[in-house]
């Protein structure tokens, strides 16, 4: 038994030696593509830190650290029994977990193996501290802690703190500086010198008092140090631009490297950072506090600018959050990839007319999904071009129901949306409206692929392979559907109904663009491209607060526009190539077929050979199909149609009640003669009202332009009444369709 216990203790208390806790001792310098400095990162693990040997740390700091954190450091082992006893006595009266007994070894253990403040956490901390005592000397423990102690402002270790706050190395700290830094680990957030300078100076005076109490300094030295004026360096000292980008890259850089040449353009980066601040300031009254942007060179995949927030060092606005990498709902920005896939598979064509009318999809558990448009209005019959350019939700859901959610999700994965990790059933038809979460980085990468005609984009952030490029899986490279979608997104007239022809999205050169707004106005997006560049922008709030009345075109689009205009300040953008194998042809805007006398508007559209044959041989319908009836009730177009009863609909059921009436809605350019069960129905104040009596009834409308009839019933209860919209089952995914 004793042997088992001894063996267990030997394993549990196995020494932790210097090789078990290595720390990078070198800073990492970054330059832009032209060799201009961007900044130096003190560490590569996401923390601003750098290790130095004990000999390069000012003795004043080490004395202050011992006096403040562990006065008996040289006299005890992993645990200080005297301090532990005092803490437990105090805790007995305070009735909380013992505190104030942690030695430097225990604090170092907490840095290496984070635990909570529970009794079990304290036990784990003590065990790790003992392992450190078993494998390290006192000097090594002191050095390891001094290089890892939390120092506020995402700084760790005395060297990083000394360079950042005072612009000197740890070896050159004077007494006042050393005392201030030694006090920070007690509460690095509340004592952050940048955020709470008065609290930091107050803690400095406490440290100086303890140094005097331990005999390290006299009263006069304490007084002079406390009175010394301490000037803090600017927060961005050491980082000239692109702080988020540097911290994003640092953990990916090989340890052997000390200098990295990035793909950024420093001049462009600084412009983007300034514009982020300007746009956010202008939108502050609409409760917009944060923004992010990324610029990619389409030809090379190089990241030219990367700004994760208006100010990395603004802790009040969570500036350290990286909006380029953060996961948010993308709103409508995924729609172009849905339409491209549907066009590629010929599920829809440029001639397809999509019904933007009220619709509901039957879901499991007897639930209904009822998509609506941002404008809360419906446009009726719309072409694919208009449905995408105006970002209409109902047509997009109809297209997704044809393509199938699993196939669309597979395409998004191929485009590099790696964070869409749920199943197709989880996302459902809302996937095309932003039902998942993506990053701005992923979105920009996918739009660069769209700009490249489906050719996968390998995003590069550094030269010489310092950080591996990021690419996507295979997509349908070169299919003309990519060029058609680009043509739609670059067409200001196609999006005129939603955005106008002279909106912030319209630039003096060809540019394809799409906006997006997430639910409750929490995120706004604008992503777009020219032949040369892709620019993607997000605006919102890192803490998730909703904005006030801000959409993609009013939130993120102004920033997108400024960046695009800056990119072409000295040269012109080239035109996009038309879809390969397509020709311009005239079609009717409401049928997608050849124009006839009844066509209200003729438009030009890109059609391939199969589309042109279909248009030439197909006879346009005389009437819209019945799925438009609910929409036609409120539309002036109803007055130009042949006679049709729009409401009630054939097969409707109503509750019969004494005196109950239903108003009949009729489309038609001629005055109708209406009968109910063969008896005339007269208009009353311009409206036709029919009684709801029990039984089945026939309603007939006749005029010079035609005859329409419906049957409806009324009874004491309704098994399924008319809801005002079409109910469609969610269809199963189907394979590619051939051209008509």
Key descriptive features of the protein:
740 residues, alpha+beta, 5-stranded antiparallel beta sheet, 5-stranded mixed beta sheet, 28 strands, elongated, disordered C terminus
Task: Report the average pLDDT across residues.
Answer: 86
What strand line-up does the widest sheet have?
Answer: 7-6-16-15-14
Helix fraction, binned, reads 25-40%
Biggest sheet descriptor? 5 strands, antiparallel
- The global form is elongated
Class derived from helix and strand content: alpha+beta
What's the total count of β strands? Answer: 28
Radius of gyration: 35 Å
Distance between the termini: 84 Å
The proportion of strand residues reads 15-25%
**Total helical elements:** 23
Low-confidence runs (pLDDT<50, min 5 residues)?
719-740
